[in-house]
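Action item from last meeting closed. Structure (314 res):
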């Protein structure tokens, strides 16, 4: 503390109003915690204050009363300043509204984000995003499954966050599946390149056709390539099997319709099939399989369970 500031402090305590002086100091200590763009200069303030010290030279009770009045006025000003900073921080802090798009068990949705990116949201899914993107990164949160057609913007990367990890891109088309009950993250790249960062913190770069599956419980990573868009059947409305084993048909149906199907024996599971079918009622898909493989029968064993038995390969 400079000699001038020490002098000011001594002057405040010199009179009979030391109590108000202490209150003023405490109030100043509290309000000084608020950050301001331009801090006051104590030295300059003291010089200006000294020029007006005629009140300090007044003798008698009049001087004391006048000094008390000035101290109380200064305290009131400090209270107003502190209150102003508090009101600004509480009521005028910048805040961006968050929006949520959700689907139920029967519907899917297609919509655009503020940056022009187009999102297709699968059933039983949610996407949370800001009303307006700000800053250097465009971030959204996905619960469930969605197909992203991201508007290219090299200066503002696009990030999809899930409970099992995140996907970072600049501009591309890709599918992300991360349902909480599955405890996994699946990413399929249709166009462009993406970086996938699972919950383990490692980064994996994927190019078109690449498929990554991350199991959150075991922290295992699976990297394969897809030759068809059957994983996107919920969006495209089509399933296509060209020399695909029956086991692949069953897996695609289970994924798309959320059911469980058991193949009676391994020979049937490995039989290749050729057919295309439009996505609609589940029974329509089973009917096409039974027609393609005349010796195959699909039996209903429960509300969402099936048994596939018979013979398909000759």
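Sequence:
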């Amino acid at each position: 503390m400079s000699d001038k500031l020490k002098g000011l402090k001594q002057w405040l305590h010199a009179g009979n109003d030391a109590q108000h002086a202490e209150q003023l100091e405490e109030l100043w200590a509290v309000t000084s915690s608020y950050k301001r763009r331009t801090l006051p200069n104590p030295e300059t303030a003291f010089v200006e204050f000294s020029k007006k010290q005629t009140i300090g030279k007044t003798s008698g009770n009049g001087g004391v009363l006048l000094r008390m009045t000035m101290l109380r006025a200064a305290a009131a000003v400090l209270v107003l300043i502190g209150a102003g900073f508090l009101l600004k921080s509480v009521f005028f802090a910048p805040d961006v509204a968050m929006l949520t798009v959700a689907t139920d068990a029967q519907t899917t949705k297609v919509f655009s984000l503020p940056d022009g990116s187009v999102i297709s949201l699968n059933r039983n899914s949610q996407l949370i995003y800001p009303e307006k993107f700000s800053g250097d990164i465009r971030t959204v949160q996905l619960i469930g499954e969605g197909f992203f057609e991201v508007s290219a913007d090299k200066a503002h990367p696009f990030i999809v966050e899930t409970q099992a990890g995140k996907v970072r891109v600049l501009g591309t088309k890709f599918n992300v599946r991360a349902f909480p009950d599955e405890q996994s993250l699946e990413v399929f790249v249709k166009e462009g390149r993406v970086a996938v960062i699972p919950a383990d913190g490692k980064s994996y770069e994927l190019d078109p056709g690449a498929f990554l599956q991350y199991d959150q419980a075991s922290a295992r990573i699976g990297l394969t390539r897809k030759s068809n868009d059957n994983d996107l059947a919920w969006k495209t409305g089509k399933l296509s099997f060209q020399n695909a084993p029956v086991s692949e048909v069953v897996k695609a149906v289970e994924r798309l319709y959320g059911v469980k199907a058991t193949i009676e024996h391994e020979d049937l599971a490995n039989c290749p099939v050729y057919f295309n079918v439009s996505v609609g009622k589940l029974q329509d898909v089973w009917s096409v399989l039974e027609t393609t493989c005349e010796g195959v029968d699909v039996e209903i064993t429960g509300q969402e369970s099936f048994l596939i038995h018979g013979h398909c390969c000759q």
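Note appended to the action item: The chain has three domains: 3-91, 98-225, 230-310.
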